[in-house]
Amino acid sequence: MPELVRLYIRHSLIGFAISGVFVTGLLWLNIANLQHLVFSTSGGWLAAFLLFFFNGLLFASVQFGIAVMSMAESDEPGSGRPESLPMSDVFSPAPVRIEPESVHRS
Prior knowledge:
By secondary structure, the chain is mainly α.
């Protein structure tokens, strides 16, 4: 199996594990009376599963995005973001000439 596919599967499983912890925490702490809604209604388990699933998709994609972006780091000196940007050229004041308005519009 290619390394990138293994990386995707591993970080997707990590994202779904984080989602499981998150949804369990939501139910255990009874945030917004969610525990009562899930356990006392007939479709509550479906709602809990959908909450887990869609949060899992979100956390898995964020986890994979962080993993892919962290692969781009380079060990070469001088690469990456510069320490300071020359902002004096960009934000230097420019003189503005103001002439009195001779015609007034009504």
